[in-house]
Amino acid sequence: MSEPDGTAELGYEQARDQLIEVVRGLEAGGLSLEESLALWEKGERLAKLCEKHLDGARERIEAALATVEDAPDAASGGDSE
């Protein structure tokens, strides 16, 4: 599902940077209620996207660690002298 503002295609760093800008905009105030709500909704989408990226990275790290833990002891080179 693609978001109308293109947030679904963003990488983690891009989404995080846009989320920072959303927070700054909301903190600065001076927006109408509609503008504030639209910005809040965009922030929610960006936060979920960041969480999705972080979850994916966590899964990749856990998979890599499991592979290393399951591998034979490479440090010994397989020799049992």
Describe the structure.
There is one protein chain. The chain is built from two helices and no strands. The protein has a single domain (7-69), classed as Helix Hairpins. Helix 1 packs antiparallel against helix 2. It has helices at 12-28, 33-70. It is 68% helix and 0% strand. It has 81 residues and is mainly alpha-helical.
Counting structural domains, the number is 1
Q: In percent, how much strand structure appears in the residues?
A: under 5%
The N- to C-terminal Cα distance equals: 58 Å
CATH class: Mainly Alpha
Family: Belongs to the XseB family.
EC number: 3.1.11.6
Keywords: Cytoplasm, Exonuclease, Hydrolase, Nuclease
GO cellular component, one term: exodeoxyribonuclease VII complex
Tags for this entry?
81 residues, mainly alpha, Helix Hairpins, 2 helices, elongated, Exonuc_VII_ssu_sf, cytoplasm, exonuclease
In short:
One of its GO terms (biological process) is DNA catabolic process. Belongs to the XseB family. The protein is 68% helix and 0% strand.
Topology:
Elements: H1 12-28, H2 33-70
